[in-house]
Fold this protein.
Amino acid sequence: MTQPGKIPTLIQTAHGPVRLPAYLPVTTFGEKYPLDDLVRPYLPRIAQAVMVSFHYAKQMKERPNLPLFIDSGGFASLFENATVQKVGELGVLQTNNEGVQETLHPRDVLEFQERHADVAFTLDFPVPPSMGVREAQRRLKLTIANARWALENRRRKDMLIFACVQGWDVASYRRCAEAYADLPADGIAIGGLVPRVSDFATVLKIVKAVRGTAPDKPLHVFGLGKPGIVEALYRHGVQSVDSSSYVKLAADGRLWGHPNLHLADASPLERLHLALCNLAVAAQRTLPLSASHLLFGSQWWDRMQPATSPGG
């Protein structure tokens, strides 16, 4: 339990505690990103928990051996083949893949999360900066309705549920967060900030506005994982972030903190080394010995070449 107005420093989950602040590496299941399969056995040595999107979690054959956060997959509503529809009072996500139509209902998300997740996130619909106000308002209303439904229909009491906040400016994000003031949410999660990060001053204002509505709940931010940005978010009241940047950089042969260096034609093992280094930097942890002896036994650092354009 936390005292009113006191920012929590710990999340208790069915698979162990998560001390805050926490950097959650994103991982995937399936065949699309094979580097994730190489990295995943090392995650318990570096990270406290892991984040998986609903879409990839459905392909999971064995859960990671650490607290598992599963988001709703609502980010897919930004894809060209996706539409957000209203069914009753709730928002559902419809996708059309090569003529095969699928519908994702908040009930589908919650039932799956209750089978597998330690921490779940409600089905939300991001609002891209280019979206018109009318559609943005509709998505915001459906995001709020979905959060209310999930919290009212939860059955597994040991699974934590974070209510997702969306918006398009400071006022709309605050309004969305205020709609959850009377709900028994275990935390609040802010989405839709990745395409707005170029205006980081506004991102911090959004964080401050949302934090002001929930001073005693854990606050999560989706998708912002660059170390400097993460540190600023922590200073402004965020308790956890998630990101796949550590592994995306590694797949491109890049190392955090050395943006002008690039390892061209990196082998799978070298990409693994880079990913573990990147994650250790982001999580502010040291590499485990099981990874370090592989890392320092390789010659990838000597092969790093100046990049033709800065990255990372």
